[in-house]
Amino acid sequence: MKVSCIETGRNFILVVLVFDIFSSLSLAAVSQSSPQCTAWLVQSIPTDLLHLPRVSGVLSTADVFRWLAGNSSQTLDITTQYWQLRAQPENPLSGDYGYSKDDLQNFGAHEGYGVYKALENAADRNVNIRLLSHSGRNPYYTSEPAELASGRPNVKNVTLLLSEWWEKGLIHSKIWVSDNRDVYIGSANMEWRSLTQVNELGIYLVGCPIIAKQVVSYFDNLWTLASLNSPDYTKIVSDQKWQIERKVPCWSRFLDSQVRCRSPLPPFIETPHVAGYPVLSDPNMFKLPIQTPGCNYLSAFEPQSSYLSFAPPELLFGSYQADEQAWVETIKSVGKGGTVRISTMDWLDQSQYTKQTVYWSTLSSAVSEVVFGKHATVKILVAYWAHLFNNADQYLNSLLYSNVLCSSSKHNKCTGKVEIKYYIVPGFNMTGPAIKDGEKTENRYPAHSRFYHAKYAVSDVRAHIGSSNIIWDHFYSTADVSFGIYDPAIVSQLEEIFDADWNSPYAVPVEEVVEGGPLHCVGSSMSMNSVLKL
Ligand SMILES: *[C@@H]1O[C@H](CO)[C@@H](O)[C@H](O)[C@H]1NC(C)=O
Ligand SMILES: *[C@@H]1O[C@H](CO)[C@@H](O)[C@H](O)[C@H]1NC(C)=O
Ligand SMILES: *[C@@H]1O[C@H](CO)[C@@H](O)[C@H](O)[C@H]1NC(C)=O
Questions:
Q1: Shortest-distance Cα residue to atom 11 of ligand 3
Q2: What is the pTM of this model?
Q3: How far apart are CA 112 and CA 167, in angstroms?
Q4: pLDDT (tens digit, 9 = 90+) per residue, 25-60?
Q5: CB of 275 closer than 6 angstroms to any ligand 3 atom
Q6: Any ligand 3 atom below 6 A from CB of 531
């Protein structure tokens, strides 16, 4: 019997039952013996989202992290921005401070301990573990990788400050590679809140050495950077493409070829006459059969196209494409009259962290182009949370203005549209330590929790899953990695995940949150008051 993710609705219950059977059967079977590459979508959903329907066949991030550690016998490579798998309710500097054992149990903090324990076990099994992170977040920094490395020569812990290479850069990719064959790529950081208090999305590839090898090449590049003295290898460029001055590695193609250095990393694509990194006409595609037991167990014995994309472009190698190109091409892969679904924490057509601000409309332009040219509907989910950029609503309104332009002339043959919703996780405005300065606070959840953090795009033919938020910095100065695939089963399951969020009471049209709407974008500012009216 062929089961498809599209057969929901009337057959929903049956499909769920069959999925459950398949999931448990296949999970036992896939990992050890199967020579076939297998892909599963992976999610974290904050606790207490009672009105969010679950999509069956999707794995949980905590399980997948535990399994990656649990199954590794030789090597385990992990990059993450920061670490905090273990909650710290007794540390007054921690956003977890003051919560009780029961609270933490309800928050799902034990899942973080479980992942930490699985890593400790892997370290004790003498697996060669490489942990690469940014400096971390106060007050935890890199204490967990340091503890794992302490007294264990098989565990290497490295801090890499990408800001020494790219102005304001940081390690933002969340990748796991176990035994050069099992991989996680997605949005979840190495912290307990990413398992149970934040919406995350990723992909788990099991038994995929061909893909794993290239992820490890990228990892090796970062590892190499960590061992080099950055002042010897960086230059200030007067960037013609983005019209700012900024620091880049000396082999960057943003620099004039006369002043470039020889890259210490594997050979790059030859593009001698371009300032910056061009769109590749033929980026590397894997042609592999990939099974998708979580969605459609009987599909995908045929080879399909899948890819990796990387940022920043100076870390590219061979014919691998930049992450920006892969996002754009995912949007543009939509068929005539089709729908593109996009999830991101932030959406700004500019840089956020550079000294000089960059204007960057690459992704917004791609959206408008398919709205006009292909009559596509583009649905975008953006996080609304405690640390929302204060100009987010202006940019989202500017993108919504495409709808006005689309029908601005009777000569326009434009029937596409953009729809944008904010994802508001209940409790987002009640986060922080339970006790501050010895007093009980009103907070109900720990700091840095209760928000939407998934980053993916899915057209009717192609799914793209990564770690980049939609702002310039993620494509040009932070380390981010994505995996994408043309697979009908993954595409329809990812659409199902998106639609569950989109149609839930937690997703609210931007126009209802922002006073004014698209015609009044100038000077509108989002206030808590407008949310309170919801
Ligand atoms: C290995 O991974 C599989 C799924 O890929 C999982 O079912 C199994 O429990 C994992 N084993 C360990 C020891 O974690
Ligand atoms: C790595 O771990 C060792 C051992 O615990 C520690 O002394 C060192 O500070 C750690 N380094 C980093 C960069 O975290
Ligand atoms: C948080 O926002 C909700 C609406 O989303 C509102 O009902 C509640 O009063 C707010 N709480 C605080 C502390 O602002």
A1: 429
A2: 0.90
A3: 32
A4: 444 444 444 468 999 999 999 999 999 999 999 999
A5: no
A6: yes
